Sequence to fold (415 residues):
Amino acid sequence: MDRPVEERIQRQRLIKRIVGITLALLLLLFSLWGTRRLLSSKIDHNRLRTAIAETGSISNTLSAGGEVIPAYEQVVTSPIQADIQEVLIDVGRQVQPGDPILLLDKSFFLLSFDKNKQELELLENRIDKLRFQLAKDQFDLEIQDSIKALHISSLRAALDNAKRLRQIGGGTDEDIAQADLELKIAQLEKSQLENNLRIMRLSNTTDIRELQIQANIQRNSIREMEEKLKRAEVVASRPGVLTWANENIGSTVNEGEPLARIADLGSYKVSGTLSDIYAERIQPGQRVDIRVSDEVTIGGSITNIRPTVENNVISFDIQLDESDNPALRPNMRVELFIITATKPNVIRVARGPAFSGRNQQSLFVLRDGIAERRQVNIGLSNADYVELESNINAGETVIISDMTRFEHMEKVEIK
Fold:
């Protein structure tokens, strides 16, 4: 047997049905309103960005990044291997020529310096000793040569006596032959002594010269070490600002390692970076606009392009037209616009979201409260302006807002 539905339940069901129908109607009305708004040919003027087309020059640019660095920076390197004892000037302080920057421990280098001086003294002693020994040997050979000369004279007299005795019948041919043989032997011995003496003199000169060269090398090494000791007093050689110093107290630095950097903050340049895809489009001498801030843009030109490529990025240096501009700061990041082409006296308009990057596109021109769609050709462009090659004249107002949703319309009413 069916039981009647309670009145309370019937009321709840009725309320749910009414709420569902109401929500469906609201959703339908909202959809109709959105569709009508989407298809509306009217737009509020306050929602638009406009710009006046004008005549002027325009440049095609490549965007790149840059960093402001001092135009002149001195790197102070360690002339010797030493330990850092103390940093005498804080980074950021102004320095003048002669101001001490770092204090180095030179004790190890001084030991090596004293060792080289002692080695030079040993070489000089060897030279003196060799001179004495060579003089003695030469004197001995000269005495032997003199004695041999006297002996030859005696043998020559003996030969003459043997010949005279043979003439008077008191001697024999054998005596003459023997005396002649002894004379010839003595003469050969004297020639040998003279040759030995000549060779000794040459050898003596060569040996002494060799030691003298070694001594000169040692003297030059000592003079070089003396110069390094003078430069081991780490001082500023030019006025500027100390931008960096090795503050690792107690650490050992090798010869040639940087100790400090002193920059002239009165003059700057820019180090730029760009993807290597555009490497063929930049070259030395090319003009660059450097945007320091929204209010400050400085001109410049590329001075050199580094040959190495790191992480698909090329680097280049820019000389600034105003290297002492007060807006510049060291290590400041700036925007670079490298000028690749320039045209004078063209129709241009401020850049905005309306430009899609295509060579041909539709733009809306505002006139008498109506935005008219026109097909235009786009020429050169940069971060500020776009060249309009056709269908728009100077003085006309161009909508530079994104008008993509009105592309199907020829005209749009501006409220």
Remarks:
- Residues 64 and 274 are 5 Å apart (CA to CA).
- Residues 35-40 have pLDDT under 50 and may be disordered.
- Residues 107-167 form the longest helix (61 residues).
- The first strand starts at residue 42 and ends at 43.
